[in-house]
Amino acid sequence: MGKVAEKLMGVAPSASAVSRLNQTLTEQFEAWRERSLLSHYRILYLDGIHFTVRHGTQTDSSMILTALGVDLEGNKDVLARRPCAEEDKDGWSCLVQDLRRRGATQMDLIVTNGHDGLLSAVSALFPATLRQRCLVHKQRNVMNAIAHREHKEVATELAGIWKSPTVEEARTQLAAFKGKYRLRYPEAIRSLCEDEEHLLTFSAFPQVMHRYIRSTHAIESLFSNVRQRTDQIDALYFGDELSHHRLGCDARYPSAKHSGRLTAQR
After folding, report:
1. What's the mean pLDDT when you consider all of the chain?
2. CATH class assigned to 1-134+216-251
3. pTM of the model
4. CB of 220 within 8 A of CB of 49?
5. What is the share, in percent, of the chain residues with pLDDT greater than 70?
């Protein structure tokens, strides 16, 4: 804690100041982590964010599983986060169970990446909730199997599907895309077809919301604030496990350029 404060502030704090700061942050974090949640959220975003973390003289890559909620007034709030060595089923199950334990029992839409553990946790604990697969992750996976010379053309076609004015037209274009590339790029089409039934869920909501609910970009945007601060140091430093858990807990409130409100009703 002292090394981070010295790096950010330019002066070395006293040992007692570091101790007081650590105690205050610990108390604030515990209150934040255990606070009651609203029972009903319009949108729940679930995704994992990678950070490089220093433990003493060693560094490693850590995953921060994150739940970002949008309430009925359109306000964003980080509901929970859980550090893990890697994204796995147990981590996601614990995080989603924690949301329900603290009172969040109704979601209009859950937006996720495609990790099997995450999908299993959501299916078990919110089985009746509509789910949208993140199209940024999906398109990235598809493009990994496309020859570079055709990237621009294929990416434009995929974007056209997601931005179709009606779900019927989107389905027609999706079928045409699969027919066009099935033989040339079978791996790309296999990837596209995974979780296909959740690619166009966003179309059930008002069009003004579509750009916000097609992906988990809201979480990436939120963490850009954290990265702006942590980029000032080589890697995040944590002297103990609890400090690791505190990563970014003060980033609940995004900067103005990322704080768009979702107020449209279904």
Report:
1. 83
2. alpha beta
3. 0.81
4. yes
5. 78
